Amino acid sequence: QEPLTVSMLASAPLQEQKHMLGERLFPLIEAIHPTLAAKITGMLLEIDASELLHMLESPESLGSKVDEAVAVLQAHYA
Amino acid sequence: GSSINWPPEFHPGVPWKGLQNI
Q1: Which pLDDT does position A53 carry in this prediction?
Q2: Is the Cβ of B16 closer than 8 Å to some Cβ of chain A?
Q3: Which of A66, B10, B20, B21 could form a disulfide with A41 if both were Cys (CB 3.0 to 4.6 A apart)?
Q4: Neighboring chain A residues of B8 at a CB cutoff of 8 Å
């Protein structure tokens, strides 16, 4: 699978940009949190596309955002 | 949208509607 680039995203409408990012993020998130991956991905897609692109390149950034999202989810459902 | 349905779930292969489907 080719890496997602800024120019690939720039040519798509916002909703489509988020979908493309979600397709890349989901398997990475699923590897960390199989049961919550769909909700975590949905939450992270509220973040700016430029930051999401960075997270795709940086496992540390993605991991810390996933941890944050899980904490928010757990508080939400508590 | 209702907080009960938050957050929206992303499923591969399904077009992303984001917050619209809440």
Answers
A1: 95
A2: yes
A3: B10
A4: 42
